Each structure stands twice: as structure tokens, then as C-alpha cells.
Amino acid sequence: MIIKRIMGVKLLIPASMFMIIFLGGGCEEEMLLTEFTDYGFEYTPEICIEAILDAENPQATVVRIDYSMAVTDTSIFNGRDDDGDWRPFSDLNGNGDWDPNEPLNDDVGEDGMASTDSEFVQPDDGEGDGIPTDGEPHIDELDEIIGQLHDSTWVVELFKAGSGNKVADFQWSEAADSIEIFINSNDEAQEAVYFGGYKLSALYEPIDYSARYRFTVSGGNRVIEAEFQPEPPVSFLTSFFEMNNDTLIATTADTLAPIWTSGSEPIVYWVKTERIYSADSIEVIGDHPAAPIRVQDSLYIGGDFTTFYFPGLYRWTVYVPSRNYGQYVYTNLPITDSSVSNWRDENNEVVLGCAGSMAGRSIYVRIKP
Fold first, then answer.
1. Final residue of a domain: which of 204, 228, 252?
2. 354 touches 52 (CB < 8 A)
3. Do 164 and 23 lie in a common domain?
């Protein structure tokens, strides 16, 4: 991972980066991140707002208001196990020392890799010493960091841009949603990380896809607003297939199934595919973007390749983001660019983030041999 400053003009510092490269004046220098503070870099955290309305299920909407951070911030990246979930090696014989036949668990050293997993990985500092070491799993992990970035002090509202009618109110929640992440690459253990955000507390009218909307975030003397036009969900084309109640029947010989259409001009579709073994056993096997195909004016279609899947029961969910949200996610422009972020503060200055919408719709598909 690399941080770049080009011609000494701009510096972008994502939180996951560990090495710096300076480019300018025809010279290039590499350094460890710990050496970077010698350059006297000062960073002011900026507010970042992601308000993505779930247009088909507004109750699932989460508005996140967080602050950016410098990767050199040692109050956040302190190299310690702050929440007590780091696991030392398993001392199976009780001798107090790690032996090669004993599981290392999280005690894999500062490189984050266990030397027992590969002949190409050598033991390093901290491996098997029974002490948490910076670089090991569960040290400065996401759930230790993310809670320090939230701001729960704002008032969040949704309005119709034209009439000014209030559509929804949102309320802060410490556990607004969660994500599954891999903590330890050696045992592939997954953990749910909960994060805070603003959840819907009141909805005063249904979402109208023909209307423009405005998120308003206010607090103290600040008012930050953003407008967007929601895109409607897709329609699945079922007339080409056999249907059994709400389930589309396809075979592994079908090239595309399911197929969907949208009358607008979306930036992208997002497709989630789940295999359903039973009511309480569902596996996510696909989660990826798909490009819309224009077939005629104002008519776009999409589909998935059934030949990629084994026979069985599946659920396809296709999401359509609002155009500005699709642009925000898939553009290569910096997030400070006014064409990417649609948030503006009381001084009409750009605020990091995006306000937009996603509209999802699902269909069941049974694939036969």
C-alpha cells in the first residue's frame, strides 16, 4: 500500500496504508510510516457523511457521520489490544513457552503471518511470545477504531426537495449495522463488527421515484445538505421462463437467468446471489457489480450467467443506485471533487461523502440440471 504526494501538491492518506512514496522534482523516496512524522505533517480531521436511502425498505437505511483520520494518529493506532480479544498461543503442555506443535492463534508476530503455515515465512519479532504485538490480528482492528470516528450529535432529516415536506427523521444508534470481516488470515475466523449510525425513526410518506429528495444534517451553527434523485428498482423478465409461484425455473443450459430491465439509465447494477439450502442455511456466493446493456432508448437490461451455478435454489437481489451514488462508488475522481460529493455546508463548501439511494428487488431461481 502506498501514499502519494505528486509535485508536492496533494497528499491523500487512507487508514490502511503503511509506506509513503514522495514523487516530485524527479526524485523518489520510500520510508516507513513511523518515519513520516519527521516531516512535520499536520492533519485536520474532516467530517464525512454517507446517507444512502434504501428506497424499497427505508427502515434499513443507515446514515453514517464519521470523521477522517491521519494514519499517524497514535491515539487511534496505539499498537495495543484495547478490547481484550487478542488470543495468545495455546500452551498445550503448560511449560509457559510456545512449542512448534502448539497453535499460535493471534500470536503470529508483527508481520501478521505464522511461520508454521509456510516454509517461506520466517519467525519474526513477537511470534509466540505470549504478548500482543503491533501487526498481529486483533491489534488496532476495525472494531477498536471505528467507534472513535463516529459523531452522534447531529440532527438528520429527509425532505422532498421541491415541496420542502419532511419525509423522514433519523435517530442515532450505537449498533446501526454490522459487517463480517476476516480477523485472522491463518484460521479465516470471521467476526461481526458493529458500527454506529443514524437509523430511521419516523417515515411520513412513501418514497416517490419521480421526486427529488434532500438530506439535511444540522447541529450547532452548521447545516449540511445534499439533493439526489432516486432510481427505481429493476423489473424481472419472467415471461421467457417457467414460473412456479414466485420462483423462476431455469436450467444450467440457459445462458442468462434471471434477466431484468430498468427504464432509466443507471450507472451500474449491483447483484447479490445467495444459495438457499434451507430456511436457516443461506450462503452468499456472489456480490458484484454488473454493467447495464442498452437495448433501445431509455431501456436497459442486465442478467446473470446461470451456467456458472450448480443446480439448486437461489435468490438474486439486484440493486440500482441513484446516479450520483453510482458515480461516487465507481469514479476514480478524488472524493473532494464537487462532481463526486453532493454535500454542501452553510458556506456552499464541499463536504466529503455522498447522499443517494439504492433500490433492491429479489427473485427466487431454481436451477435444474
1. 228
2. yes
3. no
Domain match, 186 and 267 both: no
Same domain, 182 and 268: no
Tell whether 304 and 182 lie within a shared domain. no
Within a domain: 340: no
Q: Is the peptide bond before 232 cis (omega within 30 degrees of 0)?
A: no
pLDDT winner (highest mean) among 32-41, 184-193, 253-262, 352-361: 352-361
Number of domains in the chain: 4
Residue that is last in its domain, among 206, 228, 250:
228
Question: What is the 8-class DSSP label of residue 36?
Answer: H
Q: Are residues 324 and 245 in the same domain?
A: yes
> Is there a contact between 258 and 242 (Cβ–Cβ < 8 Å)?
no
The dihedral through the CA atoms of 284, 260, 214, 352 has a sign that is positive
Residues 326, 312: Cα–Cα separation, whole Å: 32
Q: What is the sign of the dihedral through the CA atoms of 332, 235, 273 and 369?
A: negative
Q: Does residue 203 sit in the same domain as residue 59?
A: yes
Residues 51/62, Cβ–Cβ less than 8 Å: no
Question: Residue 96 burial (CB < 10 Å; 0-12/13-18/19+)?
Answer: exposed
Going by the DSSP 8-state scheme, the letter that residue 322 receives in this structure is: -
Mark whether 221 and 255 lie in a shared domain. Answer: no
Name which of 167, 106, 117 is nearest 139 in CA terms: 106
The C-alpha cell at 241 is 421462463
Residue written as grid cell 409461484: 245
Q: pLDDT class for 125, splitting at 50, 70, 90?
A: confident
In terms of domains, do 37 and 162 share one? no
Least confidently predicted of 45-49, 154-158, 186-190, 249-253: 186-190
CA distance 18 to 16: 7
Q: Rg for the chain (alpha carbons), in Å?
A: 25
DSSP state letter for 211: S
User: What residue numbers bound the domain in which 48 lies?
Assistant: 43-75+142-228
Give CA–CA dist 69/318, Å, rounded: 33
What tens digit of pLDDT does each residue of 16-67 get? 333 333 333 334 444 444 454 455 556 677 888 999 999 999 999 999 998 8
**170 and 139 in contact (C-beta within 8 Å)?**
no
In contact, 145 and 139? CB cutoff 8 Å: no
